[in-house]
Amino acid sequence: MKRVLLFAVAGAAGFLVDAGILALLLWATPLGPLVARLFAIAAAMLFTFWLNRTFTFGRSDRSLAAEGARYGGVGISAAVLNYAVYSALVLAFPTLWPVLAVAVASLVAMVWSFLGYSRFVFGASSPSK
Question: What pTM, to 2 d.p., does this model score?
Fold first, then answer.
């Protein structure tokens, strides 16, 4: 249960990075909500890798490169799911505030991420917490 709580905290922090960068890019640049979100997702993914590796799951027996590659694989698949839900909402509801669409999409991708990170990235070879 502790891991789920720590994962939720890391996810909430990642959401703040994601939504904050998205809002900043929408305000400060001519980027639209679909392109700006690509940059926001990338920043949030790097930030949550650090949080999850440091606090939620701990380091595995794998090298940083192997762990990072696995995290990236799960993270990219979750980001694709997240981005698909986000894009569908933004396109289907043009007046919807993009940050609200980020919240909904992030919740959808959260379950996928937890299962992938806990089993495939930091799973069996990880020290238990």
Answer: 0.71
